[in-house]
Amino acid sequence: MRKKSWISLLMLVLLAITFYIGYTVGIKHNSDNTIQSKWIKDGKPPLPEIDIDGVAIKVVQGSYTWCSSSLGNESSCESVDMSLSEIPSTLVPAGAQINIKAPKRIKEFSLINTNQDLANDDPYFVPMDKGVYLYKIECDWFLDQGHSDYLFSVEVK
User: Is residue 97 helix, strand or coil?
Assistant: First the structure.
């Protein structure tokens, strides 16, 4: 009878060890699949790249809300409201196409010419009329990481 109790105790210990190993492997595996592990590692939203007729256009970071991973599965978020007094304009030819390389991992992207109220004008082409035009880009990222606005200005020759 004593031998059976030792075998039962040994089986119970082995079962407990097996469950513990499975639990620790599962915890490690699940920590790699958290939402935060798939976020962009930058501390603030990355900038889009813009060029018009081969000329790089300066893009200014506007207001944003951005979450980033910290230690473990923790995250921290910040919201920044920007008030920009002056945005430098770049001289560009009338009717030129606006080429944009969007930031990585975005889910939504929109380009708005803030000077035009006409619904049929394509914001991806510079207007034909001379003048200074302010553009706004809005981006949202997957997995609720954040939202950002960007601004740039062009002057049609």
Answer: strand
Instruction: State whether residue 73 is helix, strand or coil.
Output: coil
Measured CA distances, 117 to 17, 63, 99 (Å)? 69, 23, 22
Dihedral over alpha carbons 53, 89, 149, 71 (to 10 degrees): 90
CA–centroid distance for 108 within its chain: 10
- pTM, whole model, 2 decimals? 0.74
**Which amino acid, 65?**
T
Which residues, in sequence order, are CB contacts of 28 under 8 Å at separation 6+? none
Which tens digits make up the pLDDT trace of 99-119?
999 998 899 999 999 987 654
Burial class (CB in 10 A: 0-12, 13-18, 19+), 40: buried
Which tokens go with 103? 């930031």
